[in-house]
Design brief:
disordered C terminus; 143 residues
């Protein structure tokens, strides 16, 4: 029985400390924090044939509707006019950290003013929609 189980799990002298089991060390991380690529992209929500989207920051390797890091807003393309709500401060913070927006999200960020705020460094107010301006003007004139 002594031949089947070695007295020590190491080859040669014990001071060499070379394991013979052939396993990989678990203390080494699989991915480093610096290697993660963050994308700003759309995450589909809503019912069948009635899409609405969340604008999220997510790891590039995760699936479209999978795990995300943070929600930055939402987009409803079915309304007339389309509804775009973006937290510009969160979006600019992610862009400054190096997050890459997809083409669609880049267009939405330009509409909301977050892209200009990121490029110039000056806070830009989002353009008011004509519907919101008409509702706001109607309530002021009634007073």
């Amino acid at each position: 029985m002594e031949g089947l189980f070695p007295a020590t799990p190491f080859r040669g002298r014990p001071e060499d400390c070379t394991p013979t089991y052939g396993f990989k060390p678990r203390h080494l991380p699989k991915t480093r924090r610096e290697d993660i690529v963050v994308k700003l992209r759309l995450m589909r929500m809503g019912k069948k044939k009635q899409p609405t989207y969340r604008i999220v920051a997510a790891d590039a390797r995760s699936p479209r509707n999978g795990r995300f890091i943070e929600i930055m807003g939402h987009y409803d393309p079915r309304r007339d006019p389309s509804v775009i709500v973006v937290d510009n401060d969160k979006a600019v913070a992610w862009l400054e950290k190096g997050a890459q927006p997809t083409e669609t999200v880049a267009k939405l960020l330009k509409i909301s003013g977050a892209w200009d705020q990121f490029k110039t460094g000056v806070k830009v107010e989002a353009p008011a929609s004509p519907v919101a301006a008409a509702v706001g003007a109607g309530s002021e004139s009634a007073s």
